[in-house]
Amino acid sequence: MGISRDHWHKRRATGGKRKQPHKKRKYELGRPSANTKLAPKRVHVVRTRGGNQKFRALRLDGGNYAWGSEGQTRKTRIIDVVYNASNNELVRTKTLVKNSIITIDATPFRQWYENYYALPLGRKKGAKLTDEEKALFNK
């Protein structure tokens, strides 16, 4: 059959049936979802209307993430999919979709924070700093 993005197969607002105005057309084409998984990067190129291209991410292991309150964005590694409000199956299969809650590697943000504020972040309480770290924080 094929995935179609038409609206004429649906019923009218009154509940009446619509006549089929024409067969499926190329411009009504739909494609299957990517279901992007958490794994080493794999991206396929899809040819679209007008010879343009879309990049379909089948697997990803990193991305560009923002620390909103600090106004900082860094490219970092995705560690795990923790929660998804729409479906627990997406968490179990580690599927990356919009609005899924994930854990990321915080190292780039921690390095920026320590450099900008000259304060240690994410260290255990009472842990001794090395001489190099002390020198960095006491500039």
Descriptive report:
The chain has helices at residues 88-92, 107-117, 131-137; strands spanning 37-38, 42-47, 53-60, 62-67, 72-83, 101-104. A hairpin with a 5-residue loop joins strand 2 and strand 3. The protein has 3 helices and 6 strands, in the order E-E-E-E-E-H-E-H-H. The chain is an alpha+beta fold and 139 residues long. Strands 1-3-2 form a 3-stranded mixed sheet, with no helix packed on it. A 3-stranded antiparallel sheet has the order 4-5-6. The chain is elongated and about 80 Å long.
Keywords:
139 residues, alpha+beta, 3-stranded mixed beta sheet, 3-stranded antiparallel beta sheet, 6 strands, 27% strand
Write the topology of this structure.
Blueprint: E1 37-38, E2 42-47, E3 53-60, E4 62-67, E5 72-83, H1 88-92, E6 101-104, H2 107-117, H3 131-137
Parallel strand pairs: 1-3
Antiparallel strand pairs: 2-3, 4-5, 5-6
How many strands, which pairing sense, and closed or not: the largest β-sheet?
Answer: 3 strands, mixed
Class based on secondary structure composition and strand pairing? alpha+beta
- Pick out the low-confidence regions: none
Rg over CA atoms, rounded to whole Å, is 24 Å
Shape, per Cα inertia axes: elongated
Helix content: 10-25%
Strand line-up of the largest beta sheet: 1-3-2
Report, as a whole number of angstroms, the end-to-end distance: 67 Å
The overall pLDDT average reads 93
N-to-C series of helices and strands: EEEEEHEHH
| Total strand segments | 6
State which percent range the strand residues make up. 25-35%
Number of helices: 3
